[in-house]
Amino acid sequence: MKNNKGLQFRLIVFNFLEFAVWGAYLISMGTYLFKHGMAHQIGWFYSIQGIVSLFMPALMGIVADRWIQAQKLQSICHFLAGAFMIAAGWYGLQSGANVQFGTLFTLYTLSVAFFMPTIALTNSVAFNALVKEGMDTVKDFPPIRVFGTVGFIAAEWSVDLLGIQASPLQFIMSGGLSLLMAGYSLTLPACEVKKVEGDVDLVEALGLKAFALFKQKKMALFFIFSMLLGMCLQVTNSYANPYITSFGEIEEFANTFGVQHANILISISQICEALCILAIPFFLKRFGIKNVMLMAMFAWVFRFGFFGAGDPGMPGVILFVLSCVVYGFAFDFFNISGALYVDQETEPAQRSSAQGLFMMMTNGLGATIGTLSAQAIVNRLVNAQEVVAQGPMAIWDGWKESWYIFAGFALVVAVSFWIFFPKTPVNPNVEVKH
Asked: Which of 65-74, 109-118, 192-201 is predicted least confidently?
């Protein structure tokens, strides 16, 4: 019998580094932008991830399938992503308080455009390596993938403990990890490319043919609700850190743990996200897919509501912690149960494109529209000159109103889903695919 421990460890490092690249800036970037004159543009930095995700992963997938081995393409993408991210960080350091949105956003966008495809490529490279060793991807991959979340948290904590949450050094850290990943990717087992004759069908590759599923009422409803819920995905990534650190302007909260270590406090969300995956099989078997998706929607209501009602002091910080705890249910329960619903309700020939459409509606269209909408609300209630002129307490009131608006939106989506979405049977023998 083969000893696969060495390969498992290599793939653990692979996943750890992949998500550490993301964790180095995703949660804390909003605070840097907020404190360097770009509070009104935070939404653009987060929504661009959704915009490039509409096409870049599919295009890079075509390249990996037909021309360049996936592990080599992974290396190229990480090299370019790392180089542009380091350039963004270096520009931020050199510019100081005079950093310009146009230059920083351009460098950041180029980095993100090459980073987002690497998430899917990481899975492809890992699956290829596991299959070559005769291992079971369904059984052996999830314990490896969990270390991706561990990597995200480790980078998140490092940025916090190094005191660079409001510094462009976080971009340089991310870029350095990306360059490390570029080299490490080349050490993994080679992936095959398919020598296929004929032209590349971009319509099919981008998953656009799956839009035919909208002809089915239940699938149309599912994808519409997927987009609506996707509008919640990046809101707290964009604004939770700036919100919590803004309490530093209020004397009562200035020295609290949450204000001083916002990233560590928010990391409870990622910890609970990892733990909630373990609970999904029980909930699906006990309550069925619709009810699990409904639980996720109501969890978003509490996610936003607890943020609005809490503060970094005692006992208010308990509500912040509860917000982070329910995030695991909000994020995992819909993503995994939704993917399973797509798998069960579509024909085998449509499943891959249908899954792509599910991701496009949630992480692409939904996340982009939601982040830009959240930006408009925060700019009106928090960043408006008349609000800022009134001082920290008025700003806090603006934040609270913003969070309650987000919670209200999630509540409307949840109730509408409960009323209009058809019931799904409870299947005690359901198999959860992570």
From this structure: 192-201
Angle subtended by helix axes 101-132 and 42-53, to nearest 10: 40
How buried is 391 (Cβ within 10 angstroms: 0-12 exposed, 13-18 middle, 19+ buried)? exposed
CATH fold label, 1-188: Growth Hormone; Chain: A; (1.20.1250)
CA 183 and chain centroid, separation: 24
Residue from 119, 144, 148 nearest 23 by CA = 148
Let me know if domain 206-434 sits in CATH 1.20.1420.30: no
Q: What is the pLDDT of residues 246-282, one digit of tens each?
A: 999 999 999 999 999 999 999 999 999 888 877 888 8
Distances (CA, A) of 102 to 237, 349, 423: 22, 43, 48
Among 165, 182, 337, CA closest to 266: 165
Neighbours of 359 (CB within 10 A): 23
Residue for token pair 């904590």: 157
- Coil, helix or strand at residue 362: helix
pLDDT of residue 206: 59
- For 398, the token pair is 């603006």
Q: Can you give the three-state secondary structure of 293-317, one letter per residue?
A: HHHHHHHHHHHHHHHHHCCCCCCHH
**Domain spans, the chain:** 1-188, 206-434
